[in-house]
């Protein structure tokens, strides 16, 4: 996935447009992509990319998550 595709996906998940993905937006993004089953576990794993531990993913953290 190139930088433009990553940005487009980030912006799609960031539904409130604040430049950060919170846990609710992340869960909704997983659901939209067809994730089923252990959604809470997947969200928890993804939030491990929150390097500064502020409870949200900024674009750099999101990029790291998807590498």
Automatic annotation (TrEMBL):
Coiled coil: none
Molecular function GO labels: calcium ion binding
CDD domains referenced in this protein's UniProt entry, alphabetically: EFh (cd00051)
Protein name as it appears in the record: EF-hand domain-containing protein
Source species taxonomy: Bacteria, Bacillati, Actinomycetota, Actinomycetes, Kitasatosporales
UniProt-listed PROSITE patterns: EF_HAND_1, EF_HAND_2
Gene3D superfamilies: EF-hand
Residues annotated as domain EF-hand: 1-36, 50-67
Signal peptide range: none
InterPro entries reported for this sequence: EF-hand-dom_pair, EF_Hand_1_Ca_BS, EF_hand_dom
Annotated organism of origin: Streptomyces termitum
């Amino acid at each position: 996935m190139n930088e433009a595709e990553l940005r487009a996906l980030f912006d799609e998940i960031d539904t409130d447009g604040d430049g950060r993905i919170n846990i609710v937006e992340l869960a909704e993004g997983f659901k939209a992509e067809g994730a089923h089953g252990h959604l809470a576990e997947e969200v928890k794993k993804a939030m491990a990319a929150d390097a500064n531990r502020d409870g949200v993913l900024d674009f750099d953290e999101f990029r790291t998550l998807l590498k």
